[in-house]
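Dear colleagues,

For the upcoming journal club I promised to circulate an example of a predicted protein-ligand complex. I picked one with MRU because it came up in last month's discussion. The inputs are reproduced below in full, followed by the predicted structure.
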Amino acid sequence: VVSDPTHQDPIPPTIEWRQGRVRLIDQRALPGELRFVECASVDDLCDAISTMAVRGAPALGAAGAFGVALAARTLSDDANVRAAARRLGGARPTAINLTWGVDRALEAWERGGADAALAEAERIAAADVAGNRAIGEHGAGLVPQSARVLTHCNAGSLATVGYGTALGVVRAAHEAGKRPRAWVGETRPVLQGARLTAWELDRLGIPVTLIADAMAGSLMASGDVDVVVVGADRIAANGDVANKIGTYPLAVLAREHGVPFVVAAPTSTIDLDTPTGSAIPVEERPPDEVAVVAGERIAPTGVAAANRAFDVTPARLVTAIVTERGVLRPPYEDALRTAST
Ligand code: MRU
């Protein structure tokens, strides 16, 4: 269901339903080990979401929907299913896709019970892969021949059910023979760029060079970046974009250096109920993600560490938003409303 069987994908589906369980690639173990977690209960899945075994906005949307299917099959009382759905939706606050997926599966369950919830989750998963391929096709037009593309965090196959959004654009450009090369910021503190994006691009045979996050400005100043392409966790009605911490400084740098700054995201990431970026809830994660690296404390014990997981890029710094329905250009208000209806 989750991928075209005629297409050999070198990266397995991030999330799928297998014999009554939700099976996930365990992203905490990459790149060292490609292993899977099987969630048999809503508790298991909530834990997988909050510890980032599964992460990335569209993957969280599918996780939320499969979670409701799991709740509907494993919990007896209707009130318990609704409570489980609320818990799933609250497991991480910033990516709107999570509550979007939960709500869609819950509505299906209200209408048709556990089977309908599962069918809806499967539909969301299949539509995610198809939508990402469409994002890739639309977005590849914004990638020049032999482009040096800078990306941040992981908006690849692993952040979705398959294919990826921002990396889907790079991948589609690669498949179209444009020979793109990627600069990947390591993405402190959880290192999604170093651990996940570099792993994916390497598997796909797309040239990739890892950089410390702090090198982006120097690269743009020396003329070595042709386009920045990133994903999104939530896009407000005015076009402000929440994405991984460190995205906003890239957009400021891109504007300063005349480099296009492109956001690739499915329409499920658009939240018309959130008027501007200042209303987007930004997740605070544990300080030890900053103070401890690979199990080793790198700061003096007792020193405070702040760990905002996302930042907000104002719409005025965004050159284009690529969705499965096409490329949106500023002003975004009307374009986003049209694209999401
Ligand atoms: O904290 P994470 O790893 O879930 O953050 C992920 C991102 O910021 C991605 O860029 C975003 O979800 C888009 S994924 C297609």
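Two points we might discuss: The radius of gyration is 19 Å. The chain is about 40% helix and 15% strand.

See you all on Thursday,
B. R.
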